[in-house]
Hints:
The protein is an alpha+beta fold. 17% of the residues lie in helices and 29% in strands. The radius of gyration is 22 Å and the shape is elongated. The model has no long low-confidence stretch (mean pLDDT 89).
Amino acid sequence: MFNNAAERIRTGEVILSYVNGLKEPDEDGKYTVMLLLPQSDKDTYRDFEQTAKAAYEQAVNKAWGGQRPQFDMMSFMHNGNGVKPKTGLPYGAECKGHWVINVSTYRKPPMLDLTDHGRQLLPEDLYSGIYARVTLTLKGYKNQGGIGIRVQLDNILKVRDGERLDGGPAAEDDFADILASVTPSTQAAAPAINPLTGQPM
């Protein structure tokens, strides 16, 4: 059961992008991924607003020594129709119509596959474009870079496949007709092995 703490959120459907950051940690030891939240998902956006406010209140005493700094509590969420805050360059076409949220964790996040009875996703199962729901924890911080609220990735649930954002075709699509033609009845039966000699019978 989802632990519905005030500083935690379980999103609606998002698209995962830059998933290579989930396969191996970066130089800081963090696993990272970009979430694309449809701007039409007003419910999840409101949940983010409420969760950010709760994280702010927690941080007043825990991180900021009783101070109540003034800043945009939603600064972790960027408009995919605009430009990247660090470079000023436009976001890619896949970000249009979405909120862009970069999330990270020092713990390799558990990743389950709803389309396969909750099986644990393997690194090779991941590609940019997967639809997922994720759980996140929002925390206030204060460091040399300033004050704000960061988004920690907790867990991932793949809910369905999506269009690949890396431009590469899926192997399942390239060979779908061949795979469909190979059934147990058309495959050659393996010869029985003599348990004494180890040779085919």
